[in-house]
Design a protein that fits this description.
The complex is a heterodimer of chains A (136) and B (653). Chain A is built from 3 helices and 6 strands, in the order H-E-E-H-E-H-E-E-E. Chain A has 136 residues and is α+β, with helices and mostly antiparallel strands. Chain A has one domain: Nuclear Transport Factor 2, Chain: A (Roll), CATH 3.10.450. In chain A, strands 2-1-6-5-4-3 form a 6-stranded mixed β-sheet. The mean pLDDT of chain A is 90. With 653 residues, chain B is of the alpha/beta class. Chain B has 4 domains: 184 residues, Alpha-Beta Plaits; 157 residues, Ribonuclease Inhibitor (Leucine-rich repeat, LRR (right-handed beta-alpha superhelix), Alpha-Beta Horseshoe), CATH 3.80.10.10; 193 residues, Nuclear Transport Factor 2, Chain: A (Roll); 51 residues, Helicase, Ruva Protein, domain 3, CATH 1.10.8. Chain B has 20 helices and 19 strands. In chain B, strand 16 and strand 17 form a beta hairpin. In chain B, helix 18 crosses helix 19. The two termini of chain B are 52 Å apart. The chains are: A alpha+beta (136), B alpha/beta (653). Chains A and B meet through helix 1, strand 1, strand 2, helix 2 and strand 3 of A and strand 4, strand 14, strand 16, strand 17 and strand 18 of B.
């Protein structure tokens, strides 16, 4: 792949990802009722080692954790090549996020990694897998 | 203080810790003057116990003597029998402290934790915050002192330490301040009971327990014939604390408790009941000396439905029965029977306080397929063996085989974590920092590399290994690894590895480099039946401030402890994350990996053998348990723990 191609793809990928990630933390910090809609139906979540499967169960699980306030300090993102993204409808991204979170009043550093796919029918991006873990 | 402990070294250790805390607190003028430096300053207790409530005096004794003068003459409570007892106790403490070497055996050393401005937060809020974070948290005699600081005692040094770890980490939303705490080793405001006393007390307590009704009747305790000639009143802190210890130890499932006719005027000690049992529905406190409803409020949190308070002075406080009832309901909203009269409870059903509990922090999650774990672990082991090689420039090129020739990608980010107050720790050594930051693909810092994207995004195996080879030499600490497998499909797997590493030229050359944190996410596809190929590799690194490193380690220990705790009920227990995705295009030409289905027979036999060893069950029972859990060893272990009580004895070897 030429470096021009890489630049072009990366620019678009970063724009898409930033939007999604901003939305995600806004929803989890302030509009948890919408959480379930952000995960694909068969999505999986591993939250501090606790596994939850299915968008509905994930929405319920995350809604029930104590209040959060995230502060993201680092976001990295990659878009899968069309070949690698084929099983996910042709467009998928992976993101690695780091930052701090105040949860139920206590401050932790965390990292979170997500696999995002775009539903080819609705054109909506959904989280397919999500892994969250405290650093301390 | 000398010679109080048999192990003198321990005393010294504690002393030096005390000193350390003192130094830490010295910046804070609000903290220091209120505390007695218990091991340096010769205590000159001029204890003038005048009309002080037992609480105040305990507080004074616990905190030291400096605030004592201020207190004299300020109390309003009557001079009760308890005061005399406390007076007596304070003399014991004086003796214990003054005697150099000849220390009384009945002195108990405990840790007093103080919370700055604790009165503003409220005791129950503090206790709830700490209780949800500190394992087996049992604060003794929690109260708010004259300086508006909250204080309580804990017996265990380790627990005191883990409470201190939370200092400055818990935020109070309303005031937007962090809880500041400090601890002090002090003489407990209660005496140690002799072994013979303990035995006698236990015998009496045990005989007063009705197992069928799950009821403990401690009415007129000191009048018990077996206790005549002894001073075993429940008004003595040490007796009451022992009773509660016994309940905690043996009768945690207690549903009815009578403390009738025990001359109790304070429920400070009794409030420990909150930590000993959670099921008390019937509570008889009648015919005591309780003057204020505030005392009863110290038991708030128990699911009491039937309560007896008659015969206490507090009842005279109320002229209208509706006021009395509403005061009781404020404390115990589920009460449907007050002093023998049926009343309408204001709360029924599930306690709303039960929701919003944070799920436990658990160790690595591999899903329920042992082959997946094996495959990924083997892969990572080989990967880091090469990655950590002595000569990164040469060695890491060997990793080309691990990445997909064209479709793979690698990016990295370096961003140092900051703490709650926004400060971060510098990344050392600088040359490593620069090597990483030149590559950092952090979208939050996009303005710094917007025009140089292609330098930071590496596509294809060859380009990736060239980039990896330029990164600093590293050494990863495998003991610190946590691995989460977050996605397993027939064509892709995603997993995330986090842990500690060292980097830079100092690695392995005798220097002690700083430990850093990393989190690396891999998305892999099966190359063939037994090997994987990386599609995506994302690396995040950060410096770790030494106190944060300590917390990281504590968290790992906690995870190990939580490994066997049963899963929260609403989550599906360990289900494989197989995803059904509608395919609009044919899947990539990558071989299918046999990651579904059961393990082979040989593996099964080994699992049965190990399970039998660990559970103590016979092999056929072990096999059944594993089979019922779809050959998920961990799940089978959890099921076993849950069902152990119902498994017949002949199932065991």
């Amino acid at each position: 792949m030429s470096s021009l191609d890489i630049e072009k793809i990366d620019r678009k990928t970063c724009e898409d990802a930033m939007q999604l990630i901003r939305l995600y933390y806004e929803v989890i910090d302030r509009r948890r009722e919408r959480l379930g809609f952000m995960y694909a139906e068969g999505a999986s979540l591993v939250w501090n080692g606790n596994s939850v499967n299915g968008s509905q169960a994930i929405g319920k699980f995350l809604t029930e954790i104590p209040d959060t306030q995230h502060e993201v300090i680092s976001v990295d993102v990659q878009r899968f090549s069309p070949l690698a993204a084929a099983p996910f409808g042709g467009d998928a991204m992976t993101a690695l996020i780091a930052g701090g979170v105040i949860i139920d009043g206590i401050y932790h550093s965390f990292t979170q990694s997500m696999l995002l796919m775009r539903d080819p029918l609705s054109e909506k991006s959904m989280i397919l897998s999500d892994r969250f873990r405290y650093v301390d | 203080m000398r010679g109080r402990f048999n192990e003198r070294r321990d005393v010294r250790d504690m002393r030096s810790k005390n000193r350390f805390i003192r130094l830490g607190g010295a910046h804070d003028p609000d903290i220091l003057p209120t505390r007695l430096d218990d091991d340096d300053q010769e205590p000159s207790f001029q204890v003038r116990v005048n009309r002080q409530s037992v609480n105040t005096i305990n507080r004074q004794l616990g905190a030291g003597g400096s605030g004592m003068q201020r207190m004299t003459g300020g109390g309003q409570n009557k001079f009760t029998t308890q005061n005399r007892k406390v007076d007596h106790r304070s003399r014991i403490q004086q003796q214990a402290i003054a005697a150099d070497g000849g220390v009384r055996k009945d002195v108990v050393m405990v840790f007093q934790i103080k919370v700055k401005h604790g009165g503003t937060y409220g005791l129950s809020w503090i206790v709830k915050q700490l209780g949800s974070r500190v394992e087996d948290f049992k604060p003794i005699l929690p109260e708010v002192d004259q300086q508006n600081n909250a204080s309580f005692y804990v017996k265990d040094a380790e627990q005191a330490e883990s409470i201190m770890m939370l200092s400055n980490r818990i935020r109070h939303k309303e005031t937007n301040t962090a809880l500041r705490m400090w601890k002090n080793e002090v003489v407990a405001p209660w005496r140690r009971l002799s072994a013979a006393d303990v035995e006698l007390l236990n015998a009496v307590i045990d005989s007063r327990y009705n197992g069928e009704a799950r009821a403990l009747d401690l009415a007129e305790f000191s009048a018990d014939k077996r206790l005549t000639g002894f001073m075993f009143r429940l008004t003595s802190n040490n007796v009451m604390l022992h009773v509660l210890d016994r309940i905690d130890e043996c009768y945690g499932h207690l549903t009815a408790l009578s403390l009738k006719s025990n001359k109790l005027d304070s429920l400070d000690c009794t409030s420990m009941l909150l930590w000993a049992t959670k099921f008390v529905k019937v509570l008889d406190l009648s015919s005591n000396e309780i003057r204020k409803m505030d005392q009863v409020a110290k038991l708030k949190g128990l699911p009491v439905e039937m309560v007896f308070l008659e015969g206490n002075p507090l009842c005279d406080e109320f002229t209208r029965s509706s006021d009395y009832l509403s005061a009781v309901h404020n404390i115990f909203p589920r009460v449907n029977m007050l002093d023998g009269n049926a009343v309408t409870p204001i709360l029924t059903g599930v306690d709303p306080l039960d929701v919003g509990i944070e799920p436990l922090y658990r160790p690595s999650y591999f899903g329920d397929q042992p082959q997946v774990k094996e495959l990924i672990e083997g892969f990572l082991l080989r990967f880091y063996e090469i990655y950590d090689g002595d000569n990164p420039l040469m060695d890491r090129k060997k990793l080309a085989d691990a990445y997909h020739d064209e479709e793979s990608m690698f990016t990295l980010t370096l961003q140092n974590f900051s703490n709650a107050s926004g400060k971060s720790w510098k990344y050392h050594p600088e040359e490593c920092f620069h090597a990483y930051i030149r590559q950092s693909h952090n979208l939050k810092q996009l303005d710094k590399w917007d025009t140089r994207r292609a330098e930071r995004v590496h596509v294809g195996a060859m380009s990736i290994v060239v980039a990896l080879a330029k990164l600093p030499k590293t050494s990863h600490l495998k003991d610190s690894f946590t691995l989460d497998v977050s996605l397993v499909t027939s064509t892709l797997m995603a997993f995330s590895l986090s842990g500690l590493f060292e980097d830079g030229p100092g690695v392995r050359s005798g220097d002690v480099p700083e430990l850093k944190y990393f989190n690396r996410q891999f998305v892999v596809a099966p190359r063939d039946a037994s090997s994987l190929v990386i599609i995506s590799d994302m690396l995040f690194i950060s410096s770790l401030h030494p106190p944060r490193l300590e917390k990281f380690k504590k968290l790992q220990e906690k995870a190990a402890k939580n490994a066997l705790a049963p899963s929260t009920s609403q989550t599906m227990p360990i289900v494989s994350a197989v995803v059904d995705v509608n395919l609009t295009q044919p899947p990539p030409p990558i071989a299918q990996m046999p990651i579904n289905g059961e393990p082979d027979n040989e593996t099964k036999l080994e699992m049965i053998k190990q399970f039998s060893q660990q559970s103590g069950m016979k092999p056929d029972w072990s096999e059944k348990c594993l089979q019922d859990s779809n050959w998920n060893f961990e799940q089978a272990g959890q099921n076993f723990l849950v069902a152990r009580a119902t498994i017949p004895a002949d199932a065991f070897v």
